[in-house]
Amino acid sequence: MEAKNLAEMYKTPLLEWDAIGAGLGAGVDMVPGSGGPGRHTSWLATINADGSPHVTGVGALWADGCFWFETGRGTRKGRNLARDPRCTISVATHDFDLVVDGEATVVSDPATVAAMAARWAESWPCRVDETGLALTAEFSAPSAGPPPWHVYRLTPRTATAVATVEPGGATRWQF
Q: pLDDT (tens digit, 9 = 90+) per residue, 100-158?
């Protein structure tokens, strides 16, 4: 991994990826109704067929060095990713703002789908559907479309973080 200090001119330190990853791994609460300063939204940007951006909120999780999210294949983001897997997820937390660029792929391993379903089920009553390859539940975000919802893994290519607490800093990593 290569790191570049983007705020060197301000004499701020290089941010440590391990600290960013630990912050993400501790959980970024996106539960509807939680409100307040502890609630965060992850934003997924995909590429429309005409090359314009499409940005929408997703319930992303950080695990095993990747962002994970779910959506229906027929949604705009699902169709965009089927055509072009390049995408970005961004999130603002208390300690840092983060943008992760990479490629998203549909997860086709039933054990991985089940493991991610178990993680999401901690805050959303989802379960693996009868195919073993997607999720279902009584409800989801309207932007997810109707079930089944497929699990996607965004493998990072680059990430940029800006510290929002002292001593500050901004760093870009290439993986």
A: 999 999 999 999 999 999 999 988 899 999 999 999 998 887 777 889 999 999 999 99
Count the domains in the chain.
Answer: 1
pLDDT in tens, 49-64: 999 999 999 989 999 9
Domain that holds residue 72: 2-174
pTM score, two decimals? 0.90
Task: For residue 156, give the CATH number of its domain.
Answer: 2.30.110.10
Separation of alpha carbons 73 and 21, rounded Å: 28
Environment class of 111 (CB within 10 Å of its CB; exposed 0-12, middle 13-18, buried 19+): exposed
Q: How far is CA 138 from CA 5, 125, 145, 147, 172, in A?
A: 45, 8, 12, 9, 40
